[in-house]
Amino acid sequence: MRQLHPETLAIRLQTERTQHREHATPLFNTSSFVFDNAEQMRALFADEEEGNIYSRFSNPNVREFETKMAMLEGLDDAFATATGMAAVFAGFAGLLSSGDHILASRALFGSSYTILTQVLPRFGITHTMVDPAAPETWDAAILPSTRMFFVETPSNPGLTLVDLEAAGALAKRHDLILNVDNCFATPVLQNPATFGAHLVTHSATKFIDGQGRVLGGVVIGGKDHVAAIRKFCRNTGPALSPFNAWVLSKSLETLFVRMDRHCDNAEALARHFIDHADLISVNYPFLDAHPQYELARRQMKRGGGLVTMELKGGVDRGRAFLDSLELLSLSANLGDSRTIATHPASTTHSKLTEAQRLEAGITPGLVRISVGLEHVDDVIADIEQALASSR
After folding, report:
1. What is the rounded distance in angstroms from the CA atom of residue 155 to the CA atom of residue 150?
2. Is 208 exposed, middle or buried (0-12, 13-18, 19+ CB in 10 A)?
3. What is the pLDDT of residue 344?
């Protein structure tokens, strides 16, 4: 058979068919697996034979999802976790030790920031934050103990980009593990491994699921890195459930189609509001006005499904705007089929100080719009009436 496209493999890669000749992969909703004999049990526990033992270790539904994600990101292997934050933490804890240092972009999701600044220091792992948009400053922050460069691009929620080619070059110069959170772009729009990333991390809860149904995460990388992460997770237990894995694997079958619609709607919405009188600014990677527009065009296929707007009137106006929405959902999630509005300063990044929020590009009046799959005219009309009502 000829080499198949990723869009086809996301649909056709699946667990080996059982004796029942099913067309779609069944749900293996079991905590454990039986052995043919005592010798097979011994060999499996000794890692002399591949196979399932216990669903905290592996499960056919989870393995199918991992295999698809590794294929989509162009890397060797993957390990799936119960949530996106479990995947972020596993990428750190599975590979780093006390005394190690992480170089990190300062434009990160709030919980990632908390892990770096509050959790890892308790175990002797330190960090330095750098300006994601200033690669010329990164080398100066490298220490002899630096082992990893962790970035998020586009960032949540400020949509700041990291130059992945420059990040890959930095990692090669200093023998670092380049770990890229690719949640906002998905493997449809951006493949960090082509720029030298060793690990790619996702919250599968977002665009990969796409309908706000289940939680999940995944770390993708080379065999040795993933083996170390798998060993850590096998013993600490952040396992993805078989049901959630089954949902996520099925969701990958429509990811390419959905991302096309997310991007169409988001770009149309951003262009509609770019000169709106109630807004200070509109931010979207594929708008000419985005400060990193040229970089976005170089490393992303399209601009993604997120738009941010800076409302005139600060925090109070932002809250009044959210309360005036009629169609859009108020939720902390993103990447859903339904358009979602969030005020990061008072929700997802509220635990950061005001100075930390500003460093991450989160201003008081910033509203994040995760643009869904509805007709874009209906989404635009709801935002228009909410802007008018909140004046």
Report:
1. 12
2. buried
3. 84
| Residue 384 to residue 276: CA distance in whole angstroms | 10
Is 6-252's fold the same as 255-389's? no
Rounded alpha-carbon distances, angstroms, from residue 175 to 69, 198, 253:
25, 11, 36
User: Strand runs (DSSP E) across 87-237, as ranges?
Assistant: 101-105, 126-130, 146-152, 177-181, 199-203, 217-221
Distance between CA atoms of residues 388 and 391, nearest Å: 6
Q: Where are the domains of the chain?
A: 6-252, 255-389
Residue 202: name the closest of 146, 153, 157, 129 by CA.
153
Query: What pTM, to 2 d.p., does this model score?
Result: 0.95
Intervals of the chain under pLDDT 70 = none
| DSSP assignment letter at 239 | B
Which residues make beta-bridge pairs with 312?
A: none
- The answer to whether the CB of 167 falls within 8 A of the CB of 178 is yes
Amino acid 163: pLDDT: 98
- Tokens standing for 7? 């869009």
* Backbone φ, ψ for residue 266 (5° rounding): -65, -45
Render 210-231 in DSSP notation, one character per residue.
Answer: -SS----EEEEE-HHHHHHHHH
Separation CA 38–CA 265 (nearest Å)? 57
User: What was the pLDDT predicted at 353?
Assistant: 78
Give me the DSSP letters along 313-360: THHHHHHHHHHH-SSSEE-S--S-SS-EEE-GGGTTTTTS-HHHHHHT
| Size of the chain in residues | 391
Q: How confident is the model at residue 350, as a pLDDT?
A: 74
Query: Cα angle vertex 379, ends 373, 385, to 5°?
Result: 170
37-70: pLDDT as tens digits: 999 999 999 999 999 999 999 999 999 999 999 9
- For 259, which DSSP code? H
**Hey, which residues does 369 pair with through a beta bridge?**
307, 341
Fold of domain 6-252: Aspartate Aminotransferase; domain 2 (3.40.640)
Out of 3.90.1150.10, 1.10.10.60, 3.40.50.1100, 3.40.50.10420, the CATH code matching 255-389 is: 3.90.1150.10
